[in-house]
């Protein structure tokens, strides 16, 4: 074997091992929810669910730092249970779904936080503005067991500042911090 071939093998070997360790997953349709909770002085004042969420996940259970996560949310799919509140939140001063139909999250760093937990730092984009956000995710069961079944239920949480995304600058009936709660199932 030539010296060049040995160098190529030495370089490509770890890459091929990385490709096999990293598995492609997707967010199972209809198997979860993305919700928000807004509070005023600590008291819950508004909640809602987004019906149309999509995600692509390249997950390496053994080396989470190699993982990549991308989620998109169709902002017009928001439902609070009250048409008046839906219209207000979807309106120009809040999410402005007519101009910004999609919100997204793209991971930049994934770190293990326990046997089943991950801390996912990335960019959240709402209303065309991107800001750093950390999502804390926990698998509902052992991720190693999911390799065989192909399904892994999880929960995740994050918070963001409305002001950072210019959401409802003139709205003072809710606090600046908004909580995001995600429950879902990823599958291969």
Protein described:
Residues 1-20 have low confidence and may be disordered. Helix content is 18%, strand content 48%. It is an alpha+beta fold and 188 residues long. It is built from 3 helices and 11 strands. The longest helix has 19 residues, at 3-21. The relative contact order is 0.18. The two termini are 38 Å apart. An 8-stranded antiparallel β-barrel has the order 1-4-5-7-8-9-10-11. Strand 8 and strand 9 form a beta hairpin. The chain has helices at 3-21, 83-90, 143-149, and strands at 23-27, 33-40, 43-50, 53-59, 68-74, 78-79, 102-112, 117-126, 129-139, 151-161, 177-187. It has one domain (24-187): Lipid/polyisoprenoid-binding, YceI-like (Lipocalin), CATH 2.40.128.
**Helix coverage percent of residues?**
10-25%
CATH topology, by name, is: Lipocalin
User: What's the N-to-C terminus distance?
Assistant: 38 Å
Question: Which superfamily, in CATH terms, is the homologous superfamily?
Answer: Lipid/polyisoprenoid-binding, YceI-like
Q: Could you state the order of secondary-structure elements as H and E?
A: HEEEEEEHEEEHEE
Strand content: over 45%
How many helix segments?
Answer: 3
Radius of gyration: 19 Å
The CATH architecture: Beta Barrel
Mean pLDDT: 82
Q: What's the CATH C level?
A: Mainly Beta
User: Describe the biggest sheet?
Assistant: 8 strands, antiparallel, barrel
How many structural domains does the protein architecture include? 1
The strand order across the widest sheet is 1-4-5-7-8-9-10-11
Low-confidence runs = 1-20
> Which structural class matches the secondary elements?
alpha+beta
Number of strands: 11
């Amino acid at each position: 074997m030539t010296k060049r071939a040995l160098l190529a093998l030495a370089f490509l070997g770890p890459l091929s091992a990385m490709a096999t360790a990293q598995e492609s997953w997707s967010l199972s349709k209809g198997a979860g929810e993305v919700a928000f909770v807004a509070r005023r002085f600590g008291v819950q004042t508004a909640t809602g669910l987004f019906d149309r969420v999509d995600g692509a996940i390249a997950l390496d259970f053994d080396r989470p730092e190699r993982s990549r996560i991308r989620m998109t949310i169709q902002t017009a799919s928001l439902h609070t249970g009250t048409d008046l509140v839906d219209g207000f939140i979807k309106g120009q001063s809040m999410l402005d779904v007519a101009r910004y139909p999609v919100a997204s999250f793209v991971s930049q760093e994934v770190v293990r936080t326990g046997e089943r937990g991950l801390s996912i730092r990335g960019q959240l984009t709402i209303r065309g503005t991107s800001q750093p956000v950390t999502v804390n995710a926990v698998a509902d069961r052992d991720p190693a067991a999911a390799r065989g079944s192909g399904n892994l239920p999880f929960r995740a949480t994050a918070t963001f500042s409305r002001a950072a995304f210019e959401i409802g600058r003139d709205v003072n009936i809710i606090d600046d911090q908004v909580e995001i709660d995600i429950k879902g199932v990823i599958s291969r």
